[in-house]
Design a protein that fits this description.
The complex is a heterodimer of chains A (338) and B (415). Chain A has 338 residues and is an all-alpha fold. Chain A is built from 14 helices and 4 strands. In chain A, the strands form 2 sheets. Chain A has a two-stranded antiparallel sheet with strand order 1-2. In chain A, strands 3-4 form a two-stranded antiparallel sheet. Chain A is globular, with a radius of gyration of 20 Å. The relative contact order of chain A is 0.16. With 415 residues, chain B is an alpha/beta fold. In chain B, the strands form 3 sheets. Chain B has a 5-stranded parallel β-sheet with strand order 2-1-3-4-5, with helices on both faces. Chains A and B meet through helix 1, helix 2, helix 6, strand 4 and helix 12 of A and helix 1, helix 3 and helix 4 of B.
Chain lengths: 338, 415
Amino acid sequence: MSRKQLDTSLLTLAALVAFGLPLVVTSPTYLQILILLFFYAYLTTAWNLVGGFAGVLPLGHSVFVGIGAYTSTILTLQYGVSPWIGMLLGGVLAAVVGVVIGLPTFRMRGAYFCLCTIAFAEGIRVMVENIDYLGPLHVNGPRGLLIPLKEASFWHYQFMSKLPYYYIILVMLLVVLALTWFISRSKIGYYLAAGGEEPEAAAALGVNVANCKLLAMALSCFFTALAGTFYAQLMLYFYPKGLMGLDLSFEIAFIALIGGRGTIAGPVIGALVLRPLNEFTRIYLSDMLPGLHLVIFGLILILVMLYKPQGLTAPLAAAYDRLARRITRDTTPKGEAA
Amino acid sequence: MKTGLKGSLLTCCLGAALGLALAASPAFAADKVVKIGNVEPLSGPSASVGVQGKQAREMAVEEINAAGGIKSLGGAKLELVYADSKSDPTVGVTETERLINTEKVNLMTGCWNSAVTYPATQVAERYGIPFVVPVAVRDTITERGFKNVFRVAAKDSWWVRDQFRFLKDMQDETGVKLKTIAFVFENGDWGTGFAEKWRELAKKDGYQVVLDEPYPSTATDLTPVVTKLKSANPDIVLLVSNAADAILLTNTMAEMQVKPKVVLASGGGHADPKFLENTGDTAYGLFDEVEWNTDVNKPGAKETNAKFKKKYGYDLTGESVDAYAAMYVIADALERAGSTDPAKVRDALAATKLTTGPAMIVSYDGVEFDKNGQNTNAGIVIVQVAKVDGKPERVTVWPKAARRAGYTPVFPANK
């Protein structure tokens, strides 16, 4: 068996497992946990387009989740537009806002960029919390929006069972993973990596670093906003503090840092580690100490940063590489590290 | 970046293992138990009211179980399953889903915060699980045509409705005629909401509005407001205030000798214990609005409060009385349903007509739900600050059925 065959068959197996999982997991509660796991993996993968490959650390992505959720929900509530259409419009709007935010902030380096994205995100959240009506649009301030129950149908984006939600988010995750894979092997991917590490050197070689970053930002914001609509339709309720707050932005960054920034599998691995942890600490430890899961997150982050600063993906990938080489009896060392 | 892809294989294998582990969820409990899911803020900013509600429910459930449980279900015992909402709507929704799907609760109750109750009741509606809301005041909770949501306590707009009912009843009772009215309120969501309804009802009842004055609740000097009040010279002043401004307003009015015939507040800052500590004699005669007061003249109220105080060390509050009563409403419905089938329990709840029993320590006369699930009898209590044993105390005066025995309200409070 060649290495390529091994990789492909394992990938196929993984996809089959993901698609077949609901045959085994029938409890809606656990299905919900898996849905949220994929949801965070998806969000982090979308974030990774700019936060990983472009080498900057944006900490305000929850705003784009909010833009997605508000756009589709307001359009549904007030104009009867299907959330599917609202989802795409929300994505486009988020991409535009992302570019507008990116234009001035991408000039900044390191912590300054981080702080700037936080400021933008918090500013927009506070504004939303203080707006009841934006022109004809009913934003409903801090109370948030409730999507009324409708008959379950694909067009309404509402289902009685958790199963359709599971497959929707799974497909979304696969799409964004495929896009990441494609970008990472394209010219833009290399430009981004170069611009992220050595912007001056890259510019000297004729790479238009700023444009590449803006493109990455637009894509990242677009996909992040799609998740906002998904979340709104899953929960049928959201409010600014819960959806657009820093907690969500930080959790995305946590997952990326622990899983491995700038790798394809990193967000998925990070979500796999952190999401179940979050759910179970909430259910079983919540009366012990509020916010305990954040303490545990912090501890894990410290440990990972101390011992595996590149995230958990690198050592896992290396281990897999060793194993695969033993299986395929391939002696040529692989040049690439995650 | 090939290795990234390889990593995702591992990921998915791990996912499969996790799924298998999760699928082995525990089978549900033995029969003869009716499980009631209860989402409350047990940590976070409203934890103290959440714990009060939890303890009131516990006491009611202990009493119901000790009296033989649900007899039509072969003496089935009630069992409360708690979940912490942290006052966070998202957590409340997730926990409601978990209680219904994993814990397989037969009924739901909670959640105190309007913001949590609003979406959580929609989850229950979706699954067809009856949800008894003891207290959460947002009007719209029982205005969505839901079939499975039942609210025991009064809703927001009824607070204003009962203020005007009180004014009318007291004028009929005493023969005093009041004509002019002034609105003074904090300019936030709460105050402006009240004022909107005041204007409507004042017009309907034929009062002449002589002042309509919002003020910022952070103000450190309210002399301008009181000056306006003095020159408008109304018979009635309606107030919505937070704690600090309630104190400031009352003391400034006393200093400037502004003495309207009736001053009627809307709970909140006026119901805060700090209010009476800091106003002293200047608050006498003031009327205020609350859900319940320890002295309500209802059979069993005193005994139940004494029992609760002995058990937990503090008095029952409006919220905890509603929580306590709600458990009896649930027990009554289960008794009549003779089944734990959600649809049957729902129908029994909809047909509730509870006018006797321990639940009737509430200030109103019964529990009966309209087609939206709102208790049509629910109401508010008006208290008057009076000197009892040389100390200012809040004495129940309205509704008349709940008035403290032997107390005659001073109405108007000033000539």
